[in-house]
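Q: I'm building a small set of examples for a reading group on sequence design. Run inverse folding on the following structure and report the sequence directly after it, with nothing in between.
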């Protein structure tokens, strides 16, 4: 069929609006969350992309897919990657049951993540772990070496020092949080639920410090996959010594620093972060 130039440009406002609605609806359908049950635990997740390299995005404390990884879910190349992002057990929509905290929760999350990926039929994948998710990702990479291709971590630490405990205690009272920080979590958990969950997290963090402070330092030697450590040098939550310690004790590690970065470098510098992560994963 031949279309003349005159007819080709006869696209009405109604047609454009329809196309925009179709595009939005298609994107929403692609990003639609799914649920699966792992050992009686509801797991909420999204899976996007058709690329040959599988990724699992691992949120931080109280974090969810969209609070912690929106720029990565929407920004990483879906032709290069098949990306899975989850709400860790007891966080976000991965309920019931509600979150259970104990000094072994980092390892429990790592074990659950491996079973979750196995249930999806994904046996080889790379990890993008932020903060608590970075710690669990280290453990996962060490324990399940045959399954983890590459590891990317930021805002993570393998042990707790006093200044980090002090930072945690300063943040314990959520009434002192900014509205921008608190509002999405209140929407997800209710204010009462957030207070209860955050206090349990702080109590567990204090218990880990009381028990000597180590979380997973003994496992760093068992991380055999190529690892990219990213760090914001102005991170108020992670002591300055940690990125260097991880770099020195993980065999195949690279380290990149953001001199003005804080704890959320993947959100603040999303484009640069995604570019660096993509280059590392495609090497």
């Amino acid at each position: 069929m031949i279309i003349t130039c005159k007819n080709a440009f006869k696209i009405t406002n109604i047609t454009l609006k329809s196309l925009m609605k179709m595009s939005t609806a298609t994107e929403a359908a692609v990003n639609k969350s799914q649920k699966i049950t792992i050992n009686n635990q509801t797991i909420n997740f999204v899976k996007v992309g058709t690329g040959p390299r599988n990724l699992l995005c691992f949120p931080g404390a109280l974090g969810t897919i969209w609070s912690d990884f929106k720029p990565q879910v929407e920004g990483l190349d879906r032709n290069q990657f098949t990306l899975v992002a989850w709400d860790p057990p007891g966080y976000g929509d991965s309920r019931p049951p509600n979150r259970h905290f104990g000094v072994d929760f980092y390892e429990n999350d790592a074990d659950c993540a491996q079973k979750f990926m196995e249930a999806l039929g994904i046996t080889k994948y790379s990890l993008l772990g932020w903060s608590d998710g970075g710690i669990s990702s280290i453990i996962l990479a060490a324990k399940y070496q045959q399954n983890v291709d590459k590891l990317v971590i930021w805002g993570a630490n393998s042990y707790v020092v006093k200044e980090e405990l002090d930072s945690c205690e300063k943040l314990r009272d959520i009434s002192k949080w900014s509205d921008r920080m608190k509002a999405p979590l209140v929407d997800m958990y209710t204010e009462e639920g957030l207070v209860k969950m955050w206090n349990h997290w702080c109590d567990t963090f204090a218990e880990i410090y009381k028990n000597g402070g180590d979380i997973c330092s003994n496992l760093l030697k068992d991380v055999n996959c190529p690892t990219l450590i990213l760090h914001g040098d102005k991170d108020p939550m992670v002591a300055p010594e940690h990125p260097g310690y991880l770099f020195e004790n993980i065999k195949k590690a690279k380290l990149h620093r953001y001199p003005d970065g804080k704890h959320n470098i993947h959100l603040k510098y999303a484009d640069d972060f995604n570019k660096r992560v993509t280059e590392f994963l495609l090497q």
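The chain has one domain: 5-282.
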